[in-house]
Amino acid sequence: MTPFVRAAVAFLACGAVLISCGTAPPADTPAESAASPGPATEPHTATPVPGPTATAPVRVERNDAEPALVTGVRFGRHPSFDRVVVDFQGGVPGYTVRWVREAHEEGSGRPIDLKGGRALHLRLVPANAHTEDGTPTWNGTTVPASGGITGIAKTGDFEGVVGIALLTAGVTGFKVSELAAPPRLVVDVAH
After folding, report:
1. Which of 7, 139, 155, 188 is most buried (CB neighbours < 10 A)?
2. Could you give the 3-state DSSP secondary structure of residue 13?
3. Each residue of 117-156: pLDDT tens digit?
C-alpha cells in the first residue's frame, strides 16, 4: 500500500468513528462544550434490571461441616433491589432463607420487633458469630432509611446457629447466591 492510500484509509476510518460517535454541535454551541464528554451511559445500564421475584424458601444443608464464622454482614442499595452480603471465615454453612411473620431470638425465644412488617429470616447452621473466647464477630448492620430492607437484626448466635432477620414492609421476591474467595452468602431482596 502506498503512503497516500494508507493516509486516505486512516482519514476515512477516523471520519467513520467521529460520525458514529454523535453529531456536530449546533452553530451557537461553543466548541469547548462540544469537546467535553457528557455523562457516560452504557446501553445495558440505561434500563433498570428487575429485582428478584421468587418468594419460596431456600434451604441448603451442610450439617457435617465445621462451623463457619460470620465475620460481617454488609448492606447495599440498588435501583430495584437491596443486597445483603454475609461474610464467612471457613466456608459457607448450611442455610435456610424464608419469609416469616414473627422472629425470635435463638436460645431465649424472645420475640424480635419487626416494626410492623415482615422479615426474611436467614438461619445459618453450623455457624458462629463469636470467637472461641466469646467475643462477637458481628453485632449488627446499619441500614439507611427509605428502601426495601428497613433493618437488619441479629436473631441469634447460639449452639452453632446464627440467625439474621432482614426487616421489610412486606413479602417481596428474593434471590440467594453463594460466592467463594472469600466465602460469602449474597441475598438480594426486591423493593
Report:
1. 155
2. helix
3. 899 999 999 999 999 999 999 988 989 877 789 999 999 9
Amino acid occupying residue 39? P
pTM, to two decimals: 0.72
Q: In whole angstroms, what is the distance from residue 75 CA to residue 95 CA? A: 19
Q: Output the CA torsion sign for 33, 35, 39, 42.
A: positive
Closest CA to 185 of 63, 99, 94, 81: 94
Are the beta carbons of 96 and 58 closer than 8 angstroms? yes
Taken in order of first residue, the domains within the chain and their CATH numbers are: 58-190 (2.60.40.3500)
Of 89, 88, 77, 95, whose CA–CA distance to 152 is shortest?
77
Cα dihedral value 131, 161, 77, 173, nearest 10 = 170
d(CA 23, CA 19): 7
